[in-house]
Amino acid sequence: MRRHTSLRLCGGSRSTPRCTQVASAAILFRARRSCPTGDLPRPNVICARSLPATATGFDEVLAQLDPTPRGLINALTDALQDAPILGPLLRIEERIESEIRTAITGAPKGGFADVVEPELIAQLQEQVLSGLQAVADVATSTPAERMLAAEADDAVRFVVAMLQRYDAVLQNPPFGEPVPESKPYLRAAYSWIPTRDYNLLAAFVGRSLELCRPGVGYVGAITSRAGMFLKTFEDWRHEILLGHHVVALADLGYGVMEQALVEAAAYVLGDVPAATDQQATFIRLLKDTDRPGGLAAAINAHRRGEPDDRVFHITLNDLHAVPGSPVAYWMSPSIRRLFTDHPPLEGHGAEARQGLATGDDFRFVRAFWEIDPSRIARTREETKAGKRWVPFAKGGEYSPYWADIHLVVNFENDGDSLRQYDGSVIRNPQYYFRSGLTWPERTTSGFGPRVLPAGGVFSHVGHGAFPLVESGAVLGLLTSRVCDALLAASLGSAESTTSGSPAKRYSVGSVQRLPWMPALAEEPRVAELALQIAEIRRRADLSDETSRLFQAPAVVLHLSQSDGLGAAAMTQSDLSGTRHLEALELSYELERRLHELALLDSEAEQYLDDEVGRHPLAYGEGSLDESELRRYLTQSIDDVIDELIERGGGSRAIANLTFVADRRLEVIAHGLHRSPRQIEAFRRDQRILPYGEPAASAADVLSYLVGVAVGRWDIRAAGVEPALGDLLDPVPIHPPGLLLDEGRPARSTPTNYSLSLPSGQMLFDQPGHPWDIVERLHAAAGALVVHGDRLLADLMKHLKGNDPRDHFRKHFFKDHLSRYSKSRRKAPIYWPLQVPSGSWGVWVYAPAFTRETIFAVESAATARLNASESEIGRLRRDQQNGGGGRSSRELAAAMEAEERLAEELRLFAREAGRIAALGWEPDLDDGIILCAAPLAYLFPAWKDLTKERKNIKAGKYPWATVSKWADEL
After folding, report:
1. How far, in Å, CA of 877 to CA of 739, rounded?
2. What DSSP string describes 631-655?
C-alpha cells in the first residue's frame, strides 16, 4: 500500500479519535482486499490530540529528558491543549520555533532571536520530537500506560504532520462558525478571516497554503462558493484566493455535497503569488442539471482545445475591476465596465442604509390590523404625543416596485422603549419617516426593490435607499436586468436549476457599490415608467384583505354582472391579464431606455439575455402546443417550473422567484420562448381560469362577507374609486374599505347604514339566534348582490364542508389563520370560541374584544345551556309519552347529543366566567396571540394558544399587560 498522510481537518468542533480509528480501519480493509497476505504499514491517518500531561507515567518519562527538551515539551504541552478544538488550524510549528528561540536567547523574537541559525532550530526540533516519541514509546504493560502511549503517539504524529510541508493538500473543509472559544485565536492567527461569522472554510484554505511546499505545492478544495462573492470575505479573496495562483476553479452550484445546503465550488491554488495578468480557468456549471457529466464534458473540451460556453479564461486584473473583487469570472467586459465608467450609487444616486433591529420582534412588532389605528404615528412628533406604533418596512416576500407595509413597530416617544432594550439597535434614525425605496435583505427570491412610502421606519433586514434624485429614476435602475446582473456578481448564490434555491443576501454594501449612471436623472421618462409600474402593482392591493389599501375582493365587482362566481372570476382574470401586460409593456420600454443611457452594446445585451433571461416581451409569437400550454396554465407553479427546467435546462428567469407583473405568465414565456401577449390571448380564447380559481375567489368573498357581517368592512365601498394619493405619501391609517363611524372603526351600526351590526360585534353559531353567523352571512350576501342565497350556494361549491355552517365549524378558521399570518406573526382576528365538539360557539371580532366581551360570551353560553336543559326536559317527557312521533332510538340519540352539549356548555360557561372574573382587561398592544391566550380552553381551533398561555404563566412576557394576571390564568 502506498504511504500517504491524511490529516483529519477538524476545527471548530472537538475531534474524536473514534473517527480516526474508523478511517484507519476502512483504509486497511480496502488495502487488504488488494494485498491479502502481505505486510501492510500502519495507515497514516492523524487526529489532532493534546499531550496526556495528567496521565499516569507522563512526569516520570519527562524527568528522564535533558532540561532544554523537557522545558520545550512542557511549553508544547500547553500549546497542544487547543489541538482538539483547532485541529490543523493550530499553528503549532510557530509555537515550537518561538519556544526554541526563547530557550536559546531568552526572547521569542528581536535581537539575537532573529539571527538564530535555522540548523540549530532544526536540531532542537529533533530533540523535542525525540522526547515526545519517548513519551509515546513508554512501556505498555498496564491499561493506563497503554492509554498514555496511544494519546501521546497521536499528539506526536499530529506535530510531525504540522512541521512538514506537502506537494498537495486536498480538503473538503468545514464551513460556518467555529466554537466560540476558538474565535480569538483564529482572529489573531488569520487576520483575513471573515469577522462576521469566522467562517472556517476561509481559515482552512489559507492554512492549507501554509502547509504546502513553498513555490511548488498545491491546494485542492471543495467548499462553499460564498467566499467568492460576499463582502465579509473580501480580505480573504485578496490575500488567499486571488492572492495566489488560481490554477482552475469549477463553479458547481447547489446540491453537489451530500446533505450540505450550500452552493459549492472546487478549485486548485498554487502556492505562488498571483500575477495579475495571468489567466485562470473557470468552469461554470450553474445551468447544468447533470453537473458530473457537464464537468467532464467541459474538461474534455478544454483539453482538446475546443470551445465550450462553460469554460472561461480571465485575468485577475479583470476580477479586481469590480468593487470588492468578487470572482465574477463570467461577466461580460461591456457590463463590467459599468463599474469603471460610472460612480457608485452611494452618494451620487442615493444613500443606502441599514435600519432598525428590535432584538425582540415578538415584543415590539405587530401586524397593523392587530392594534388600534388611533395609536399609529406617521411622524416623529406623533410618537411623542401618545401614538406608539409606526409603519415598519421589514423585508417580506418578493414584490418588486410595490409592497404593502403590513407591519408596525413600537417606536413610542421616538423609540425610547427600544433604546432601553439591550437587544435593540437603532441605526440611521435620521432617515426614519422619509420616503425612499426598500428591499428584503436576505431571501431565496430575486432582488425586490420597491417604494418606501413616507411616515415609517425601515429595518435591518428591510434596508432603505433614499434617492438624491427623482425616486423613480433609482427605482428604474434597481429593478432592471442590468442591476440584477451586477448584483449577481457579488452574491454567493446563483442557482438556476432548482426552484427555491439557497438564500441570497442583498446587503446595503452591495447596493451602495452598484454603478450609478447620471444620465438616468436627466431622462424623466425613466422615473415616470418605473412609478407607473409601481402604481399598477399598488392597485392590486385594493383586493388584498390584509393590505392597508383593501377595498373589496376583486371578483366582487363582477358578481352582479356575471353568471356565477366562475364567470366573475374569469372577468377578473381578463382584467388582471390586461394589467400584467400593461406593466410588462412599461417595463420593456424602461429597459430599452436604460440600456440606451448605459450605452450597452450587443455583447452586453446578449450577456443579460444569457444570465438573467430575456425580457418576456422580447419573445416573439409562433406555434404552440396547446395541450402543453393548457397544462402550464392550470398546474401548480412549482410543477411548471420543474418541468420547464427538466425540458430546457437551468435558467435563473425560470427557477428564481423573479417577475415584473405575474410569475406564471412570465415563467411560461421564458420556458416556451413565446410572448406573454400570445400566452394571455390563448388563455382568454380558451376561457382558462388561473390555477386555484375559482376556489381562491370563493375563499376571498366568504372572508369578506364575514367582515361585512361583523361590521369590519363597509359594503358601500365596493366599486367606489378610492383616492390613493401619491405613491410616496404615508400609508393610510384606515383601509378604504373599512367601515367608519365619525372617522373611527365602527363599533355599532353607523347612521344610515343599511346592514345592522351585532352588539359587541359578536356572531353566534346557533341556528335561530338573531345574530347567527350563517343568517348574517345571508344578510351580508343579500346586501352585496340581488340573489345572496344563490351566491352563498355558489361559494360552497368551491369550498370545503357540506354547507356554510359545517364549513365554519371545521374549515374557515384554518384558512383565516393562514391568511392573517405574515412575517412570522400569527394574528387572526375572527375568533371561534367553541365547545370541544364544535356544535356551538361564538365568533368574536378581535379588535372589539374587551372584558365585557368575555362576560357576553359567558352569558351566551349560559343562555344556550338553559335552552339545552329545557330541551333535555322536553325529550324526557317525549320518552315518557310515547315518543312524540319519533322512535325510541331517535329520542335516545337526541337525548345523548343534547346532554353532551349541555355538559360542554356548562364547562365552557364556567371557564368564561372564571376568566371574566379575573379583572383582566385585554390590551391590543400585547398582540393578538397574547390577547387570545387566556382563552385557550375556549378556543380549541388555535393550537398555539395553549403554549402561549403556559409562557405567560411562566413569566416569559413581563412586558405584556396580560402578565399581571399570569398567576391566575
Report:
1. 49
2. HHHHS-HHHHHHHHHHHH---HHHH
